[in-house]
Amino acid sequence: MNHILLFGAGKSATVLINYLSQLTEEKKWQVTIADGNAELLAQKVIPTSFVTSTLINIEDANSRQALIEQANVVISMMPPTLHYLIALDCITYKKHLLTASYIDEKIKALASSIQENNLLFLCEMGLDPGIDHMSAMKLIDEIKNKGGNIASFKSHCGGLIAPESDDNPWHYKISWNPKNIILAGKAGAIYRSNNQVKEIDYKNLFNTKNTILTPTEVLYAYYANRDSLGYINLYGLENIQDFLRTTLRHPEFIAGWKNIVDLQLTNEEKVYDTNNMTIANFFQAHFKKHGFEKWIVDMMDKKLLLTTEMMEEITNWMKVEEQAAEVGEISNEEFLTVDENGNLQTSNINKSAKFLANSIHDVNISLQQLFFLGLEDHTPINLGLCSAADVLQFILERKLALQPTDKDLVVMMHEIEYELNNNSHKVISYLELKGDNHLITAMAKTVGLPLGIAAKLIIEKEITITGLHIPIVKEIYTPVLNALKLEGIEFDEKEI
Question: Less crowded by CB within 10 Å, the N or C end of the chain?
Answer without folding.
Answer: C
